[in-house]
Amino acid sequence: MTKAVKGGSSLSRANQRRENIAGYLFMLPSLLFFLGFVIFPMGMGLFTSFFNYTMTDFTFVGLDNYRELIADPIFQKALVNTVVIVLVSVPVTCIFSLWVAAVIYRMHDRYTSLFRCIFYLPVVTGSVAVTVVWKWMFSPYTGILNYVFTNLGIISRNINWLGSADTALGCIILILLTTSVGQPIVLYVSALSNVDASLTEAAEVDGATNLQVFWKIKWPQIMPTTLYILVITTINSFQCFALIQLLTSGGPNNSTQTIMYYIYYNAFKLSRYGYGSAMGIVLAAIIAVFSALQFKLAKSDNG
Amino acid sequence: MKKLFALVLCLALLVPAFALAQTEITLWTYPIGNWTDAETVDGIIANFNEKFPDIKVSVQYLDYTSGDDQVTTAIEAGTTPDIIMEGPERLVANWGAAGKMLDLSDLWTEESSADIAAAGATLKATCTGADGKLYLYPLCMTTHCMVIDRAAFEKAGALQYIDEENRTWTTEQFRSAMKALTDAGYLSGIVYCGGQGGDQGTRALVYNLYGAQFANAEHTAYTIGSEAGIKGLTLLQEMVNEGILTADPGIVAGDAIALFCNGTTATCFCWNASSAASNKATIAEGIEPLAMAFPSDDGVPVLDGGIWGFGLFDNGDEAKVAAAKEFIRFVCDDPQQGPKSVYATGFFPVRASFGDIYTGTEKAEYADYGVFMPYLGDIYQVTPGWAAQRTEWWNLLQRIFAGGDVTAEVAVYTENVNANIK
C-alpha cells in the first residue's frame, strides 16, 4: 500500500513536472518576444540615456542628459502639453464612452452593432487618412468648419485652427478623442451587457432610482473595464505622436509639442539618441506613476 | 548514364556559384523628379545592366517625410544602402560629416571636374566636406524659385510690377503687387511656416528682400541675423499686419502649392521645374502659372540652389563599392545615359557638355527654367548644424508672425543655430 502511494505520488510529481515544462514551453515564444522587443529595448533605452549617444559619439555622461532635459524649456512645454492632453482626453473619453455605451447597449442588436461600427471606424482607419480629413476640415481657406461657423454666425472671420497657439492643442485633443472613443465604447457595451440583470431588477423592486442602480449596482461591476480603459487611454494619450507629426510638427511656437514628438525630434532629426532615451525613460516613469495611481484609486473605490 | 547524371549534378551545383559572382548593390533614392517612378528607374538600371550584367541593383524609394528616419535607423542598425541619391545637405553636411560616407575623389577625374566647373564654379566645393573629402558626385542641379498666377496679376493690374522677360521684380514692386492683388480681392500669397517642408522658399524670400546672406561664405555661421535680414523679416511682418500678405503656421510648402494650384492664392513661394511638372494636372482652369525669381531690392535675385547626386555609405565591402562606383559613373558620366538620367530628374545637368537637354523634347517647357540658372547662389545648406537650423527657422517665422519683436527673435534664432555649429 505504502509502495502504491509512494508510486502514485512520484507519478503525480512527474505529471506535474511535465505539465510545468509544457506550460513554460507554451509561454516561451511570447516570453522571447516580450524579452526581445520590450524588456531588452527598455534596458537599452535606460543604458543609452547615460551616454552622449550620437552618430559620431558614445561617451558616458552619467545623469547629464537628465539634468539637461530638466532645464530644457521645450521639454518643459512638451511635458505640460502632454499632461494637459492626458488630463482632458482621459476623463472625457471615459465619460463620453460610458454615456454612449449606456445609451446604445439597450437598443436592438442591429442598432447597437451599427453604432459600435460607427464609433469604431476612426480607430481602424489609418491615422494618416484621419488627419488628412481633419486638416481639410480645419483649413482656414477651404475648411468646412470655418464655413459652417461663419454661416451660423458663431465666428465673424475664419480662424486658423491649427495655426493658432490658442486653438491648435484643442484641435489635437478633439481629433485624439475621435480616434480614442471607439474601443472604450465597445468594451463598455460588452461590460454593461454582462451586468447581472437579477441584481438590477432586485434593486428596482426595492425602489432604487436609475441613478442609484447605476452607482450601486452597475458601476462596481464595470469597474474592471473602467480601470482597463483608464490605463490604456492614459498610455495612448501620453504617447500622442502621429497627430502632432502629421498636423503641426509641434507648432505653432511649441504649443502642441508633446514629449513623444520631442523624443522623435531629438533622436531622429538631431541624432541625439542618448538625450531622446533619457526623455523616453522619464515618460515611461510618468506613465507608470499615473497608471499606479489609477490602479490604487480604482481599488479603493472598489473596496 | 551514371557519369552523365553526375556531370549534370556537378553543373547544377556550379550554378549558384556563378550566381554568387554577380554583385548585388542597393540604391536608396529620395524623390528627385522622376527618380521616384519605378518604370523610369528600372529603365536606367536596365540600360546599366546592358553594359554591366554582373551587377544587380535593387532600389528603395524614400520620401522626404520619413526618408531621414529610415536612413538614421539604417545607420544605427548597420543596414545602410550602398548608394544613396540626395543633396549635399544630407550627404556632405550630415552623414559625410558623421563619417558614414566614402570619399568619392576618384570619381572626380580631371575631365569631369573641368566639365562640372564649367557649369558652376562652386559646385565641387559644395560636394566637399569640411575634412576635404568629396562625399557627393553630382548629377543635376536647379534653382528654387516662386510662382505667380499671371491671370490674377493681369486682372489685378499687377503685371506692371514684374519683369516678365527676365522673371524678376524689386522688393518695392513685390509690395505693390501684393497690395494690388489684395485690393482686387485675391489672397495674395502665404508665408508658410508650419514645418520644414519647402523652407528654401521662405529663406530665399527673406534674404533676397534686402540682399542678406543666409550663411557666411565660409559656411561657418548663419548670418540672416544681419541688418539686411532683420529688415527683410520686418517687411514681411509689416505686410502681414497690413493684410496684404498672409502668414500661416499651420501649413508647409506642399499645402501652399496645393492652394496655389486650386486658385486660392495668387502666388506661391515654393516652386521649381519639377514642381511645375508634378502639379501640372492639379492646376485649376484659368490659372496661368508663371515662375518668378524672388523679389530683391536691386532686382537682381540670388536663388537657392539644389544639387543632387550620389553618395556611398561605407559598408566595408570593396566589391560592392567598386560596383556602386561603376553605377554612378554610368548614370552620371556616360555620354548617352548621363543626359537621360538628368532628364528623369527634371532639373539641369551639372556637366556643361550635356548642354540643353529639354528643347525639342516632351519636357520642352522645362527649358524655361534655365532663365534662373544665372541667379544660382551659394549652396549654404552644407553649413554645420543644418538639421537643427531648419527647425529653428520655421519656429522663428512663427514667433515673428505671432507678433514677436523681430530683432529679439532673430537674436534667439542666431544664438540657437550658431550654438549647433561644431
What does this protein look like?
The complex is a heterodimer of chains A (303) and B (422). Chain A is mainly alpha-helical. Among the domains of chain A are: 1-29; 64-124 and 182-302, MetI-like fold (Orthogonal Bundle), CATH 1.10.3720.10. Chain A is built from 14 helices and 2 strands; from the N terminus they run H-E-E-H-H-H-H-H-H-H-H-H-H-H-H-H. Chain A has helices spanning 2-48, 64-71, 73-104, 109-124, 127-138, 144-151, 168-180, 182-193, 197-205, 210-221, 223-238, 242-247, 259-269, 273-302, and strands at residues 51-53, 58-60. Chain A has a two-stranded antiparallel ribbon with strand order 1-2. In chain A, a hairpin with a 4-residue loop joins strand 1 and strand 2 (58-60). In chain A, helix 2 (64-71) packs across helix 14 (273-302) and helix 13 (259-269) runs antiparallel to helix 14. The longest helix of chain A is centred in the N-terminal third of the chain and has 47 residues, at 2-48. The radius of gyration of chain A is 25 Å and the shape is flat. Chain B has 422 residues and is α/β, with parallel strands linked by helices. Chain B folds into 2 domains: 23-143 and 305-373, Periplasmic binding protein-like II (D-Maltodextrin-Binding Protein, domain 2, 3-Layer(aba) Sandwich); 145-302 and 385-419, D-Maltodextrin-Binding Protein, domain 2 (3-Layer(aba) Sandwich). Helix content of chain B is 44%, strand content 13%. The radius of gyration of chain B is 24 Å and the shape is globular. Classes of the chains: A mainly alpha (303), B alpha/beta (422).
Computed Rg of chain A: 25 Å
This entry's quaternary arrangement is heterodimer
Q: Sheet with the most strands of chain A?
A: 2 strands, antiparallel
The CATH superfamily of the domain at 64-124 and 182-302 in chain A turns out to be MetI-like
Helix-and-strand structural type of chain B: alpha/beta
The CATH homologous superfamily of the largest domain in chain B is named Periplasmic binding protein-like II
Q: H/E order of the elements of chain B?
A: HEHEHEHHHEEHHEHHEHEHEEHHEHH
Strand order of the largest sheet of chain B: 2-1-3-10-4-11
Q: What's the level 1 CATH class of the largest domain in chain B?
A: Alpha Beta
Tell me what the CATH architecture of the largest domain in chain B is.
3-Layer(aba) Sandwich
Q: What is the 3D form of chain B?
A: globular
